[in-house]
Amino acid sequence: MPDLKTNFAGITSPNPFWLASAPPTNSGYQVMKAFDAGWGGAVWKTLGVPIVNVSSRYGGVNYKDKRLVGLNNIELITDRPLKDNLDDIEEVKKHFPDHAVVASLMVQSKAEWHQIVKDVENAGCDGIELNFGCPHGMCERGMGSAVSQNPDVLTTLTKWVMEVANVPVIVKLSPNITDIRVPARAAKAGNADAISLINTVQSLVGVDIDNFVPYPVVDGKSTNGGYCGPAVKPIGLNMVKECAQDELTNLPISGIGGIENWRDAVEYILLGSANVQVCTAVMHYGFGIIREMISGLEQYMIDKSFNTVDEMVGLALPNVKSWENLNLSYKVIADINDSKCIGCDLCYVACDHGAHQAIGLNKDTRIPYIIDENCVGCNLCSLVCPVEECITMKQVDSGKEEVTWKERTDKDDIPKTFNDKLAGGIGHFVPKPGDAFKK
Fold it and tell me: Is 323-437 CATH 3.60.15.10?
């Protein structure tokens, strides 16, 4: 069997699946329940000067029959006294000495940072995560995401912690920024041992159109919150990739954002995460999802002949290039399996209205067909098709040698004027405007 044990920046755990700092790690009861279910680690709900929360705290985004595609929360850091949390951490480590317990921290002054670091270390935590990502409530006080958005401050605060820390220190980054590499490099400059990302995305998830107030509603008012769940996974994957490919960052990464199953976790790992953290999926389905995550990862590793998680980290990175380095001569076109087609016309409408008018309809059978010479291989038809593998993309010979935009630029072989004959669409079929009225 593959070995799922990980060593993340010096923090060991039985597997790469950690709970992110959030409501599921609010107490020792929850963390021990999670460890008993099979989770490898937990980042404690952020500790600091306790706050007072509001009610209600969550807003959800549903899509068709899928509940909680996205979750918005306006809950802040812990509202429990520090001593209660420290007592819980000690108790958890007594029962689960081999599991990772990481204390998430957020305070303001240097003295507070030094004191709380000592407190959580004395309680037995295996590592520290600096919460520089929270996008609501705390950032208005100069904490949370406000720190990620100011690299000089991030570096300074990280150095304060590193002055006294005896356990590995992880800096948690906010996605609410133009270039995620900037705070990542600031964490590196502050001598952090690792980074974690992403925290939640600043958002409003909807509006009560009868009462004119966004969700969640607090006595007729609302505020922006942090968006998480499956909908943010593409953002998280991209930002993890950005940091993993950045030579000036060069720190271990804990991947966070929209992870619901083992496949999601593998995607993060292949893009550079050494482990992953999960929150929303647990809030939705409970701690028990870890069983499928572990078994799925184990089977994937067996199928791919991986012995350890470390062997997987970053394997997809060499295949992520800037657009200018993609092969302009590579060509695919759509292929429809008539025997699987249900005649829903979704592909035809999508192509005709939203793409390149490369699909026709058989007038008798209503079965669509591809007009090969018009197809640019955009994939839209295969994405909207409700039948698995009814529409696939097949590679065809373009008759051209491999060339990239960068290579063409270097050869001065690119369009330079508005009506340049080198434009990529020259010769491609486009219906006449008046054809729009034809039935």
Answer: no
